[in-house]
Design goal:
The complex is a heterodimer of chains A (67) and B (174).
Chain A: H1 4-20, E1 25-28, H2 32-42, E2 45-47, E3 50-54, H3 56-64
Antiparallel strand pairs in A: 1-3, 2-3
Chain B: H1 3-9, H2 12-18, H3 27-47, H4 50-70, H5 80-91, H6 95-101, H7 106-113, H8 121-130, H9 137-154, H10 156-162
Helix pairs in contact in B: 4-5, 4-9, 6-7, 8-9
Classes of the chains: A alpha+beta (67), B mainly alpha (174).
Chain lengths: 67, 174
């Protein structure tokens, strides 16, 4: 089963890239308890309260999790 | 089940895979979170190479081509020339420079951009090779085809003109 987060993030990432190209970004506001998991598992970047993906990290997410 | 109970019951992997857990922030926290994100993005962006940005912009064009050809709606502004111009903007080259790269006359590129001339298969293949196979020739072809299909569908005058040339037409309708 594809994880809910991966499915949503993939769709958002593709939409962001289609509309924004190099300026595309996907961010989310996680529960504090889950922040590390997002960073370790999905390579998301730490932005304080939020975590995010952009640039080559966004591209990697699209290539790694092909739906 | 409350969020706290969910967190106690499941591990991070299970939670992330199965639930969307909402986080509520007040106005001040929202502002702070937005500022933090903006600063983090700026920092990451400063570290990005030109190659990174070029790759993403090429992916953007590829997805836009995909979206457009899959979409049923026809957009008169989005012809081959529109996407070719976008390609030139992304690779930061002028029409003359691309013409040199793919060994065609400069005026040909201008005619393609203005949609006054349709490119042949040879040009589409050269474009595919020029993009390092990132944008396949058939993507460009399907954009051209979409325009041809639309004009064929909408050509009432040709239908009227050709009517006298058809006899014994079928009587069934599907």
């Amino acid at each position: 089963m594809i994880a809910l987060l991966v499915t949503l993030s993939h769709l958002l990432a593709k939409r962001q890239l289609t509309n924004m190209g190099g300026y595309g970004c996907v961010s989310l506001l996680p529960k504090t308890e889950l922040k590390d998991h997002y960073i370790k598992k999905y390579g998301m970047q730490d932005a304080g309260r939020q975590v995010f993906l952009e640039l080559n990290l966004l591209q990697q997410m699209l290539e790694k999790y092909i739906l | 089940m409350s969020v706290k109970k969910l967190i106690d019951k499941y591990d991070s992997e299970e939670l992330v895979n199965s639930f969307i857990l909402p986080v509520k922030l007040n106005r001040k926290q929202q502002k702070e979170a937005a500022e933090q994100l903006s600063a983090a993005r700026k920092k990451l962006r400063n570290q990005a190479s030109e190659q990174d940005v070029l790759t993403l912009n090429l992916m953007q064009l590829k997805y836009q081509l995909e979206d457009y050809v899959k979409n049923d709606q026809y957009d008169p502004d989005k012809k081959f020339g529109y996407f070719l111009k976008a390609y030139l903007d992304i690779i930061n080259k002028k029409a003359g420079e691309l013409a040199k790269d793919v060994n065609v006359h400069k005026t040909l590129i201008s005619q393609y951009i203005s949609n006054s001339r349709k490119p042949n298969d040879t040009f589409l293949i050269r474009l595919e090779l020029h993009s390092n196979n990132n944008i396949p020739a058939h993507y460009w072809f399907m954009v051209i085809q979409k325009d041809i299909v639309y004009r064929l569908q909408m050509n009432k005058s040709l239908r009227k003109q050709e009517k006298p040339n058809v006899t014994n037409k079928l009587r069934v309708k599907i």
